Amino acid sequence: MGNVELPPSRCKVDSRFGPDLIIQLIHASPHEITLVPVGPLTDIALAVEKDPSIVPLVKEVILMGGSITGGNVNAAAEANIYNDPEAAQIVFQAGWPLTMVGLEVGDKALFTRKYLAELGQSHGPVNDFIVSVAKFMVGLSQKFGASGSPMYDPSAVAVAIDATLVKVQEMHVDVETRGEFTRGETVGNRHGGVERNVPHGDRYVIEGVDMVKPNAKVCVDADADRLLQLFVSRIRGK
Predict the structure, then answer these.
(1) Which domain holds residue 79?
(2) I need a surface site. Which of 75, 106, 125, 235 has the fewest CB within 10 A?
(3) How far is 149 from 209, CA to CA, in rounded Å?
(4) How far apart are CA 189 and CA 214, in angstroms?
(5) Angle separating helix axes 224-235 and 125-143, nearest 10 degrees
(6) Per-residue pLDDT tens digits for 47-70
(7) Is the domain of 82 the same as that of 182?
(8) What is the DSSP letter of 78?
(9) How far is the C-alpha of 89 from the C-alpha of 110, rounded, in Å?
(10) CA 88 to CA 98: how far, in whole Å?
């Protein structure tokens, strides 16, 4: 990871199927678990499809993924959603409290050499490992013209810790699963409505607007410095 060699893990692989474990833990601690997926949403979707009764038992879902301003895999899609858009659509439509922490946050929260220097002031196994990985990522980002490394996954965890780090807008989000150029795009209805167009002779007439119920809080801005300082302070153990 980040060209850093790690010693062999002393942990044993849990033989349980991931979605089954999610279901088990949620039933064991109803209304207490916040899911913070930072990858494709396959396991979460499988858990919902196998046992829909977990949905009202989850405190909230704060996921890293999506974008309403363009993608990073291609022009439309963000990587985590793109890798399993069908699963993402299931998760977005499940009916639980959901916050989408997408590229709008990670692309603003850039981990630069300033934060790397702050993190390097402390030492310990975890701290030193993160410094090494971050040094690689910052260098890689600068190689491609950026001033720092986008903090995608840590952003979702940061929002789970402190929701005031971001500005959100409630909207209905669907995931495009069929488009040739847009598969994996998170399509946010910013205005909360869909025109009702009715044919009248040789033309269409707008007869009204059907309101669309929001299913997600979409992060549209972030206090990047405060988010990055939270990351640094937690890694340093402060």
Answers:
(1) 18-107+151-188+206-219
(2) 125
(3) 42
(4) 8
(5) 140
(6) 999 999 999 999 999 999 999 999
(7) yes
(8) -
(9) 28
(10) 12
Average pLDDT estimate for 205-223: 94
> Is 84 in contact with 40 (CB distance < 8 Å)?
yes
* Token reading at 144: 């491609």
In total, how many domains does the chain have?
A: 2
- Are 155 and 145 part of one and the same domain? no
Q: Determine the average pLDDT of the residues in 198-223.
A: 93
* Residue type for position 205: V
- The pLDDT tens digits of the residues spanning 102-117 come to 999 999 999 999 999 9
How far apart (Å, rounded) are the C-alpha atoms in residues 152 and 71?
Answer: 13
Q: Do the domain assignments include residue 238?
A: no
Give the CA-trace dihedral at 53, 58, 60, 64, to 10 degrees: -80
Q: Encoding tokens for residue 142?
A: 């600068």
Residues 43 and 114 in one domain: no
User: Tell me, what amino acid is at 39?
Assistant: G
Please, what is the average pLDDT of the chain? 95
Q: Using a cut of 0.90, tell me whether the model's pTM lies above it.
A: yes
If one counts every other C-beta atom within 10 angstroms of the C-beta of residue 90, the result is 19
Q: What is the pLDDT of residues 143-171, one digit of tens each?
A: 999 999 999 999 999 999 999 999 999 99
SS3 77: coil
Using alpha carbons, list the distances in angstroms from residue 188 to 10, 69, 70.
43, 10, 12
